[in-house]
Amino acid sequence: MNDKKIATIAVRAGINSDEHHGAVIPAIHLSSTYALKGFNEKRQFDYSRTGNPTRATFAQAIAELEQGSVGIVTCTGMASVHLICQLLSTDDTVVIPHDCYGGSYRLFTHLAKRGQFNLIVVDQNDEQALHEALLQKPKLVLLESPSNPLLRLVDIEKITKACHQVGALVAVDNTFLSPALQQPLLLGADIVFHSTTKYINGHSDVVGGVLVTKDKALGEELAWWANCIGITGSPFDSYLALRGLKTLPIRMRQHQENANAVAQFLKAHEAVKAVYYPGFSDHPGHEIAKRQQYDFGAMMSFEVQGGEEAVKKLFANLTLFTLAQSLGGVESLISHPSTMTHAGMELAAQLEAGITQSLVRISVGIEDSDDIIEDLAAGLAASQL
Ligand SMILES: *Cc1c(COP(=O)(O)O)cnc(C)c1O
């Protein structure tokens, strides 16, 4: 445990750890293998799939930021999701949210189809449906709050309590907020994971993942599997993500300030039918957000008047926003969930989850908010012509 504040842990990660040269910033260790001191005299590291100093520094930093005991760095966010599946046997049941990240939905549904476990997909805000799912005594319940792309929230503490009563482990995807804005382990969860591709690295130049457990033994079991199946993250990516991490809290503050301004602008715009942003007091998850998050985040989605045609015109008339999937980088991104991030989900399942053709998602960057809003204003005006 590290009792320092989040910004301090993020900035100080690995600093002053070089005993040989006194390098302030920890060196990147690219070596794939490490010499033994002598016959059967192992050092801390022997082979970089199993352990690597750069990766270990990054893993330790995230574990401290999430207030957990073991951090595991994986080569992608999906590898972290898949790693959790190693805990499951064929007769185990898993519960996932109906509106989880498209890639997670695809992974769980396809593994279940092959008989690797039983799967229940449920709207976790539907208390009756969740209750019935928990009666099946699942081994694992996956949570994602806020969800993608509609920013729905679930009460992590309340659901975790119900899950623990039936003996289920709870794993929370915290990608949308980062530990700077939400710490699920402190709300009772057993596992928290991230796509570090997003806010944690924050500069859109790494694809990676990380998973943190509250319990040491569970973390060691998962670390064993990560080495066994060979999905640990590369030293170079760990180095970049550690560098990105240092500015996470201050980046999140600016993302947040800009997101608030953008959300207000969108809400007042006549070409916008609805804005999904937990910062609004009429958002169904607003009260939960105030309780379990430190702020509302910088992701939002909205419905454009005029359907898919209007969305196409909006995209064609933006000059600052980049039309790309992913999120959480310093640059503002815009995307169309139905044809992009959630294309792996069948159309019927998309509609079930509330993903329409006129839905647009934005990741608000840290450019000047006046410029971000001016760009959206031009795009939205053109969308209605
Ligand atoms: C991107 C993302 C993932 C998957 O991470 P990759 O790094 O793309 O493999 C998982 N969950 C959420 C919420 C994401 O946004």
UniProtKB/TrEMBL annotation:
Its cofactor is pyridoxal 5'-phosphate. GO terms for molecular function: cystathionine gamma-synthase activity. Pfam families: Cys_Met_Meta_PP. Keywords: Pyridoxal phosphate, Transferase. InterPro entries: Cys/Met-Metab_PyrdxlP-dep_enz (IPR000277), Cys_met_metab_PP (IPR054542), O_succ_thio_ly (IPR011821), PyrdxlP-dep_Trfase (IPR015424), PyrdxlP-dep_Trfase_major (IPR015421), PyrdxlP-dep_Trfase_small (IPR015422). Coiled coil: none annotated. It comes from the Bacteria. Its EC number is 2.5.1.48. It is an enzyme of class 2 (transferase). PROSITE patterns: CYS_MET_METAB_PP. Belongs to the trans-sulfuration enzymes family. This is Cystathionine gamma-synthase.
